[in-house]
Amino acid sequence: NAGVTQTPKFRILKIGQSMTLQCTQDMNHNYMYWYRQDPGMGLKLIYYSVGAGITDKGEVPNGYNVSRSTTEDFPLRLELAAPSQTSVYFCASSKGQGASLNTEAFFGQGTRLTVV
Amino acid sequence: AQTVTQSQPEMSVQEAETVTLSCTYDTSESDYYLFWYKQPPSRQMILVIRQEAYKQQNATENRFSVNFQKAAKSFSLKISDSQLGDAAMYFCAYRSALGTSGSRLTFGEGTQLTVNP
Q: Alpha-carbon distance B115 to B117, whole Å?
């Protein structure tokens, strides 16, 4: 009963480096999301996906890329890391549309990323 | 676009007392869902309670209840008999019922709740 699994939990990057944050869910959810949470702030949507092969930008997509080749996986790619990308990153999933919209979104444990 | 506002960055309550956290939102939609999430120091996001906008009855979950005022676009969370384990950051969140934009959740900036023994 894993739910949403994110790796790694912590990471320090140097400016200009790249990395991929992994996210996988085992609930057969169609919808997946990437959020970032800056200190003392709420969560802001980076990218989302409504199904395999379909992704779209959220509020703060600059500096990030995503892909969704399978229902289970939704990796987030950071290219040319910048100090402004220092944040906690959350992956989430939910069932999708219709009556299931009132159901909760399930979140991973988060990745704390520091760019120095 | 919808916005969610939590005007209380920090709140404190004595153990066993009652506290109310405020949330207002702005939307032009008539059908939507509202949620309160709890984030303890572990960072895990935990759903506390949910409310469907078409329901007039306020949702309750054990010690947690909401005061949903649709006309005022207000959605406050009341925690009764506060316990030390309730200490956390609380987020109010909005989700459209239209299914647009991936049915995203829009979050407020959070209220840090401290429970004093």
A: 7
